[in-house]
Amino acid sequence: MSNTPSLQAETYLPVMEHFYTLQGEGFHQGRAAYFVRLGGCDVGCVWCDVKESWAFEGHPLLSIETIVSHIKQSGAPIAVITGGEPLLHNLNELTTAIQKEGIQTNIETSGSSPLSGYWNWICLSPKKFKQPLPEILPLAHELKIIVYNKSDFEWGEQFAAQVSPTCKLYLQPEWSKAAQVTPLIVDYIKKNPKWELSLQIHKYINVP
């Protein structure tokens, strides 16, 4: 569990979409998981494939009770909270309610906002557009660097040096550049085997 900032509790959250699928990336790749994508992002990656999530407005406001009910009814063992940038919201009450149902709470975040919520797994994916807060780095269970060009290898190493020794390290090709950068990633991992390859398998098998 994380220590959390004294932010105002949120009992309703803007949910862009929510669905039951397989986790397509990183350590939990291939596992059944319920995704809750929250609206709102202040990072704004130019290659983001869900730019619809950037706005805070225009998404249904769902109560925590409703969100948890959907997750529970699915039978999913894991709930993944993502965005947008989910840490723009206070996630204390949501994660507490999910964990009370015996469901694991995972987050996918850039780490650019203060940590809230109680997490079984923190996937930190830093972005150049707004870098992570230093205090989040040692809490990450998984560091996922999106590789868009060659400079991202050196850029990612600075964060690998700041996470815990047990943190899993992943290099993932940006989807639109996968054909060009995947061979570079393979060569880099062969020379630096502390890293592993992450692929967006959900896009290959055509699931959300």
Quick gist of this model?
The protein has 208 residues and is α/β, with parallel strands linked by helices. It is built from five helices and nine strands.
The CATH homologous superfamily name equals Aldolase class I
Specify the overall morphology. Answer: globular
Would you identify the CATH architecture?
Alpha-Beta Barrel
Count of separate structural domains: 1
Strand content: 15-25%
Structural class of the helix and strand makeup?
Answer: alpha/beta
User: Main sheet, how many strands, which sense, barrel?
Assistant: 9 strands, mixed
Number of helices: 5
Keywords:
208 residues; globular; 4Fe-4S; disordered N terminus; iron; alpha/beta; metal-binding
Description of the structure:
The longest helix has 14 residues, at 178-191. This protein has a single domain, classed as TIM Barrel (Alpha-Beta Barrel). It contains 5 helices and 9 strands; from the N terminus they run E-E-E-H-E-H-E-E-E-H-E-H-E-H. The chain has a 9-stranded mixed sheet with strand order 3-1-2-4-5-6-7-8-9. Helix 1 (64-74) runs parallel beside helix 2 (92-100). It has 208 residues and is of the alpha/beta class. The protein starts with 11 loop residues before the first strand and ends with a helix. Catalyzes the complex heterocyclic radical-mediated conversion of 6-carboxy-5,6,7,8-tetrahydropterin (CPH4) to 7-carboxy-7-deazaguanine (CDG), a step common to the biosynthetic pathways of all 7-deazapurine-containing compounds. [4Fe-4S] cluster binds at residues 41, 45, 48. It catalyses: 6-carboxy-5,6,7,8-tetrahydropterin + H(+) = 7-carboxy-7-carbaguanine + NH4(+).
